[in-house]
Amino acid sequence: MADGISSFWGPVTSTIECCEKNYAYSSYVAEFYNTISNIPCILLAFIGLINALRQRFEKRFSILHISNMTLAIGSMLYHATLQRV
Length: 85
Description:
Elements: H1 32-36, H2 39-54, H3 59-81
């Protein structure tokens, strides 16, 4: 945020800088396209979870889809805020 752009989430605390300009499209989303690119991952994992439950697959398949959704949501939150805990 060297450009002096104010963000909703405060200063960037991440040590990794991806290839997008930060807060170019919104003051709420730091890296817009990296954030949006996680939506298909979440949707596909959700569809897989529904199919696994509907077809009564083993529990490990449901856990697999839930973990993929969790990973995609975490990635989305990271790219939206660029905050490191």
